[in-house]
Amino acid sequence: MKIGELVQRTKVTKETVHYYIREGLLPKPRKRGRNIADYDNAYIERIQMIKELQDRYFLPLAIIKNILKNQKRTAEGESLLRLRKEYFRPVDQLLPQEVEGEESFLKATGLGPKWLAKMEEWGIISPELKSGRK
């Protein structure tokens, strides 16, 4: 399908599609000519996943990119289902090692201080206190 149909089916702008490609959230499409590219249904599924991760779980694109990058090279649909099962568990299970301190947590997750405060406020993240510090 052409980008116009992809935009219509995913309800994101053409600029958003190009941004996701530039940022590595979507693979480069197959080119049919200088200004014509082909997008398959995997693009629709991946864009829907990106939007779900943003809208439902309030994840920034940097985190989403890491999640998508770490997925195995299995069939796209299976991978997206596996992502939902594996990655939506407590944040501490996603980190490569135990992280101590707010600064280290922000660096490990790619979150900004504002997002961390919001996620704590909304009950998405609960810090563990050690010696009176997060």
Task: Please render the helix and strand layout as text.
Blueprint: H1 3-10, H2 14-22, E1 30-31, E2 37-38, H3 41-57, H4 61-70, H5 76-87, H6 91-94, H7 102-109, H8 113-121
Antiparallel strand pairs: 1-2
Give a quick account of the main beta sheet: strands, pairing sense, barrel closure: 2 strands, antiparallel
Query: Which blocks of ≥5 consecutive residues have pLDDT under 50?
Result: none
Structural class: mainly alpha
Which geometry do the CA atoms define?
elongated
**Order of SSEs:** HHEEHHHHHH
CATH class of the largest domain: Mainly Alpha
> So what's the oligomer here?
single chain
Residue share in β-strands: under 5%
CA radius of gyration: 17 Å
CATH domain topology of the largest domain: Multidrug-efflux Transporter Regulator, Chain: A, Domain 2
Q: Terminal Cα separation, in Å? A: 49 Å
The number of distinct helices, counting runs of at least 4 residues, comes to 8
Q: What's the total count of β strands?
A: 2
Q: In brief, what are we looking at here?
A:
By secondary structure, this protein is mostly helical.
Give your account of this protein's structure.
This protein is an all-alpha fold and 134 residues long. It folds into 2 domains: 3-88, Multidrug-efflux Transporter Regulator, Chain: A, Domain 2 (Orthogonal Bundle), CATH 1.10.1660; 89-134, no CATH class. The protein has helices spanning 3-10, 14-22, 41-57, 61-70, 76-87, 91-94, 102-109, 113-121; strands spanning 30-31, 37-38. Strands 1-2 form a two-stranded antiparallel ribbon. A hairpin with a 5-residue loop joins strand 1 (30-31) and strand 2. The mean pLDDT is 81.
